[in-house]
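Marked as duplicate of an earlier ticket. Keeping the data here for the record.
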Amino acid sequence: MGVNHACASGLNHKMDRETAANQYMPLVSIVIPAYNHANYLDEAIQSVLKQDYPNIELIVLDDGSTDNTREVLEKYGDTFLWETHENMGQANTLNKGWQMSKGEVLSYLSADDILLPHAVSTSIKYLRDNTVLTYCDFNLIDPDSKIIRRVLAPEFSYFDMFTKYICHPGPGVLMTRSAFERAGLWDSSLRQMPDYDYWLRLGLVGSFKRIPEVLAAFRVHEESQTYAKATERKADEPVNIIRRFIATQELPPELKEHSDEALGNAYLISAQLHIRSHRFARGIKNLKASFSLYPRLFLKLRTYRVLFNSMFNHFMHKLGRLKNRLL
């Protein structure tokens, strides 16, 4: 295992003491879990180093990569804390990073995504009162970092997150350490949607706040988790997450009575993942289970958008990338 024990907070700027005294500037710890994304890692790291917020702790954890990720990290020397360890998955790597960190505010950035320079400074302004997490609008970018389109994140509704299987936060989230400690660690058994599972639990601790600005970019490429074909186990995660959540959490009555709707939408998302991975029989089976649990899904426009996405998602993104190249 390779270890570099130097840690830098306030990476690019010296703290202006007078400004710090008059503003809320907690230490923000950003963890980058890196696994075989060496081609994109440098851009992700630079996007953190170039933040205009002066009080940042960056931790990059190489999760047993087999490409030249370590070489990318070595060139930074002791600029920030980085380590390499045997592969243990995204959830375990994030848990490790956050437990190592010192920040009052926590964040993470996928090794193939980027933050805009004012992402942290803007987000901190929204992290007030009962807000435990902020999230933002973001751009979809291609492997060459060209913008495909802007994604407008929905305004936060815990009801929608639970019943419609909507994952509001994307790249660029910040959360309070106190909320993280109350909600617990990410579930290391989940490989497809550990973030959604965690947001469900964190949302019971406090409210989320949408920032109506583009503060981050999500990279679309063939190896990304979101667009790669899901294994059967990964495609079943939506159903397993909701079933377990309903069984283990003390839900308010107004949520509990909508459990069939939540499970129906979980089966719908699971069907999407199976169909996208060309397991059509399994996808149709889960689609039937979805309609059986919540027949109103027949009448929802979102249902047909999800099904369209399951069949044409890869084609549409390839078309968008081709368009970018021609422009």
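See parent ticket for discussion. The first strand starts at residue 3 and ends at 4.
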